[in-house]
């Protein structure tokens, strides 16, 4: 009896491959036509692979969790001669893995030739039927070739000359954001660039400090990612009471500020949910050996972010001492590279500038940054007393790389931070 | 007084025959009263008896004999009736003359004049432009004068050069192009000339297409485009430095030639700019040539077959708009 292949179907326009979630049959099972026998998952959804014809499962080659391209043979159905013949008739001719025969953009040319050929006043008649059949990009791609762009003229296109000039002047694409291109589809031409350069030439300019340049570069690199921010209110009274209770110490040890409470709370929350801070690099989620948290410090004309190691395993008192040392070094510009690298998340205390809310940008090598707004006395409804009571409230924000984390994950992490801040004995 | 392109060629030959006794001219029907198919040698046989010689109808023999004479110390000029017929002498020009100095250290100072390019109603055998084909081979200098002045001085230079020179004179320019007087000084051989300065687009061209390009530049000037035109003058050697300097000013390139589109001079120009000046380009380099079919006889078809000011202008606007 003939064996009919079970192949990975094209389950969506953009689907190239799918991963096997489960296999519902085993060899020897009787199956009917179009029976769902394998569950597969694409980047969009979980879908079913069905049998090509009725018969008996001869064998299953696919394995659960394996990823297979469209058209791959997943197994075979042993079918009667009649059913197999019917299937052969239905199945499309096998695709040959050859390159695209025609350049997709040529379609327009061919169409135009047809139009002009049939227009009035022409010497020649072109028979429509004889026009060459031109492959569409999709057809070309299915034949194994790449879809060929018709031209390189879109808004984002930078000509070799523009690129060379940018490299010469060390310009990045972010520097050109203020130029409206005059080329095709808004493309920035070399003249647009030169006009812009001569325009800014007449304006006052000075060399930015090294720290400003460093921050600019870090923020630009970080901004290449899809960043999102969520925020929630926190009652700061427990933290402020806890702070009162902590003796400053006879030797004048500093007391921890609210930002350090937040840093400690974030460290503990991340110790419980370490995947939240994993970095996605090339299809791998990169974790970390230790919970090292940075704290943004305004220093000179920029920001420095010294990192406190093992913040989840360091007491608030020790964190305070460590923090004071690092801030002092930062303000005197004495931080070394290893003191600012390797963190998995950071805290920005923008509340010290009197700000309620913000969307700080995570460092380019980190996935998230926690922001702390200014504490304000706010009337809060107390259900048990049936009255408004005054409380010190602040806004806490979490800005994150949306590739690594979603609103739910970010919300759960932030909620845990709030719980800890409102119960500071746990910190 | 005014001088046409054709008269400049005749005057250059007169001067060469008068001042250099090693010079003589070979060709079909060039002596006697006929004076050649285009009258480029009219009256010269009488003025210089025995030095303007009719040959049998064999381009192969004409060039072969000229090579022999050159090896004996003469400076022969060979007139082809039409550039198209020089293909019969390809073996003599490319294999014998082109390689001789390389093989023996003895130069072959011959000049082969090719009445080139199209005129209305000349058809497939009397209209072709062969400069791309000759440029492909080593050992040969290929000249394509576009002006009366260049037609005069470059022919004198061609005879002075020790290498074999293919001198492509454009038939359309013979009577259409006039200058006030013959020049006293020549522009160096192998050096291209900026015919018209500009800053928006470089058109690199040569021979009759220089004048079509100038018309396009004047038309597009009304729309505010400043087009720079480079006349290559000699297509081999090709003055890459001048072309690159021009593209450095404009960032955009259009190469225009009357020869067939497959390979050739315009392809070489685009190739060199893309390879050596990629960082200078703000738009994809473009070229425009004749169509890839035999040259049609009918005047209307011929006008559409070669690049003309309408098609060049359309292509130029396309490159400018990118």
How would you sum up this structure, described in words?
The complex is a heterodimer of chains A (427) and B (322). With 427 residues, chain A is of the alpha+beta class. Helix content of chain A is 29%, strand content 23%. In chain A, helix 8 (258-272) crosses helix 11. Chain B has a seven-stranded mixed β-sheet with strand order 3-2-4-5-7-6-12, with helices on both faces. In chain B, strands 9-11-10-13-14 form a five-stranded mixed β-sheet, with helices on both faces. Chain B has two domains: 3-179, Rossmann fold; 193-321, Rossmann fold, CATH 3.40.50. Chain B is built from twelve helices and 14 strands. Chain B is 39% helix and 17% strand. Chain B is of the alpha/beta class and 322 residues long. In chain B, helix 3 (59-71) runs parallel beside helix 4 (90-104) and helix 8 crosses helix 12 (309-321). The chains are: A alpha+beta (427), B alpha/beta (322). Chain A binds chain B through residues 151-153, 159-164, 183-184, 187, 189-191, and chain B through 251, 278-284, 321-322.
List descriptors.
heterodimer; A: 427 residues; alpha+beta; OB fold (Dihydrolipoamide Acetyltransferase, E2P); four-stranded antiparallel beta sheet; extended; B: 322 residues; alpha/beta; Rossmann fold; seven-stranded mixed beta sheet; five-stranded mixed beta sheet
Please identify the structural class of chain A as seen in this structure. Answer: alpha+beta
Instruction: Indicate the radius of gyration of chain B in whole angstroms.
Output: 19 Å
Element order of chain B: H for helix, E for strand: EHEHEHEHEHEHEHEEEHEEHEHEHH
* Percent in helix of chain A: 25-40%
Q: What is the structure about, briefly put?
A:
The complex is a heterodimer of chains A (427) and B (322). Chain A is built from eleven helices and 19 strands. At the A-B interface, helix 4 of A face loops of B.
